[in-house]
Automatic annotation (TrEMBL):
GO biological process: tetrahydrobiopterin biosynthetic process
Protein name from the UniProt record: Putative pterin-4-alpha-carbinolamine dehydratase
Family statement: Belongs to the pterin-4-alpha-carbinolamine dehydratase family.
Keywords from the UniProt entry: Lyase
Domain Glyoxalase-like: 107-210
Species of provenance: Arthrobacter pityocampae
Record-linked CDD domains: PCD_DCoH
Pfam family, one: Glyoxalase_6
MF-aspect GO terms: 4-alpha-hydroxytetrahydrobiopterin dehydratase activity
Family annotation (InterPro entries): Glyas_Bleomycin-R_OHBP_Dase (IPR029068), Glyoxalase_6 (IPR041581), PCD_sf (IPR036428), Pterin_deHydtase (IPR001533)
Enzymatic reactions: (4aS,6R)-4a-hydroxy-L-erythro-5,6,7,8-tetrahydrobiopterin = (6R)-L-erythro-6,7-dihydrobiopterin + H2O
EC number: 4.2.1.96
Length: 215
């Protein structure tokens, strides 16, 4: 399957869905457990028909759905098609989506020696020291956030080496940044916005608000 570009995904007009990092995400506001369970069952039937299976999380007030073509490591037309079908089924049941709600947190660690650090963090986070794929430590069970290694020059000066990457919908990023600033944060660097904006708390600890735009 061919990976879709960011613009192709935006042009698909998926009102309920937003791409964060590699996958499509949607939250459907079911309001109660029984309605959510019925929606999950319907999504399962669609997935079986399509031969393509999303990740689904059922909680009391909502259902979160993630779509990704794992064999292509990104979003393809089959994800777009299944997203449309899921939205249609939710709409038939009167279930609205909250496209501003999805978020993905990733951990980033600056290092000049991925080979030395990778196995340790893979073993610690996943229990498997070999769970390193390039610059990423990914838990196949989805229990912990993805950790990625940001290549830097070797350094001895103490500095913050961990930071959070918060992926949010591209049309929700400005509001999230404004909320963080209003809560005492500062914008450290917005030269790469809207791709990412670096923020800091009152003590200088940093995080990046990331979107899919201009990548």
């Amino acid at each position: 399957m061919t990976l879709l570009t960011t613009q192709q995904i935006l042009d698909a007009g998926l009102a309920d869905w937003r791409k964060l990092a590699r996958a499509l995400h949607a939250r459907f506001l079911t309001g109660d457990f029984a309605t959510g369970l019925a929606l999950v069952t319907a999504i399962g039937e669609l997935a079986e028909q399509a031969g393509h299976h999303p990740d689904v999380v059922l909680t009391y007030p909502h259902v979160d759905v993630t779509l990704l073509s794992h064999d292509a490591s990104g979003v393809t037309e089959r994800d777009i098609d299944l997203a449309r079908r899921i939205s249609a089924v939710a709409g038939e049941r009167g279930i609205a989506a909250d496209p501003a709600a999805p978020a993905v947190v990733e951990l980033a660690l600056d290092t000049a020696d991925v080979a030395a650090l990778g196995p340790f963090w893979a073993a610690l986070l996943t229990g498997d020291a070999t769970a390193v794929d390039g610059d990423d430590v990914a838990d196949p069970g989805g229990r912990v956030p993805l950790l990625w290694f940001q290549h830097t020059d070797a350094h001895e000066t103490p500095r913050q080496r961990f930071h959070l990457d918060l992926w949010v919908p591209h049309d929700a990023a400005e509001a999230r940044i404004a909320a963080a600033v209003a809560a005492g944060g500062t914008v450290v660097d917005d030269t790469q916005a809207p791709s990412f904006t670096v923020l800091a708390d009152a003590e200088g600890n940093r995080a990046c608000v990331c979107t899919i735009l201009e990548r």
